[in-house]
Specification:
The complex is a heterodimer of chains A (117) and B (111). Chain A is an all-beta fold and 117 residues long. Chain A is 0% helix and 48% strand. Chain B is built from no helices and eleven strands. The chains are: A mainly beta (117), B mainly beta (111).
Chain lengths: 117, 111
């Protein structure tokens, strides 16, 4: 079945440590996204990528980094500069920019819950 | 800037209808979506509506769009305990495939 796989499901970070969250999709989608979800809040966009080897900052990119070396993969690194990393992280993908009149829903993985040790 | 608002909480009895509301400010919205999130899981796409439509029905789900008032609603008929979840509305604005999400409405279905 086609879908989006996020791993690990749970992750713990020590002080001063960088951690990387994995996101892989086999939907042949061009665009991929990373969101952060805090309790009682909506989704906030961290980074997104419209095409391989290109990505843009979202609304809360500080303390995070990404890469897009392959179409299928969009890993997110939470760096030690992110002082409040505890959250639920969601990865999504969509067909990509086909113009404003094209229906392009985003499809989501099951998320990674990151906590501080 | 873009803003999407939803009420935080809704409680209904099993078998009743649920209506979840959403208001947005971006008049260039093209497609509007409803997603469902169960505890500890990602978001599941439920349905969507194109901005030139007023209504869309899909089994127990009815989406109503009032474009003049920038108001979107999701009606769930015969609500079941399995419908308990957080529901997010989202819209695609003039910027292509980026979506703006509301804060989510927690639906609780009581027996």
């Amino acid at each position: 079945d086609g879908g989006i796989t996020q791993s690990p499901k749970y992750l713990f970070r020590k002080e001063g440590q960088n951690v990387t969250l994995s996101c892989e999709q086999n939907l042949n989608h061009d665009a991929m996204y990373w969101y952060r979800q805090d309790p009682g809040q909506g989704l906030r966009l961290i980074y997104y990528s419209q095409i391989v080897n290109d990505f843009q900052k979202g609304d809360i990119a500080e303390g995070y980094s990404v890469s897009r070396e392959k179409k299928e993969s969009f890993p997110l690194t939470v760096t030690s500069a992110q002082k409040n990393p505890t959250a639920f992280y969601l990865c999504a993908s969509s067909m990509g920019d086909r113009g404003v009149w094209s229906n392009q829903p985003q499809h989501f993985g099951d998320g990674t819950r990151l906590s501080i040790l | 800037g873009e803003d999407v608002e939803q009420s935080l909480f809704l409680s209904v009895r099993e078998g009743d209808s649920s209506v979840i509301n959403c208001t947005y400010t971006d008049s260039s919205s093209t497609y509007l979506y409803w997603y469902k999130q169960e505890p500890g899981a990602g978001l599941q796409l439920l349905t969507y509506i194109f901005s030139n439509m007023d209504m869309k029905q899909d089994q127990r789900l009815t989406v109503l769009l009032n474009k003049k008032d920038k108001h979107l609603s999701l009606r769930i008929a015969d609500t079941q305990t399995g419908d308990s979840a957080i529901y997010f509305c989202a819209h695609a604005g003039g910027g292509g495939n980026k979506l703006t999400f509301g804060t989510g409405t927690q639906l609780k279905v009581e027996l």
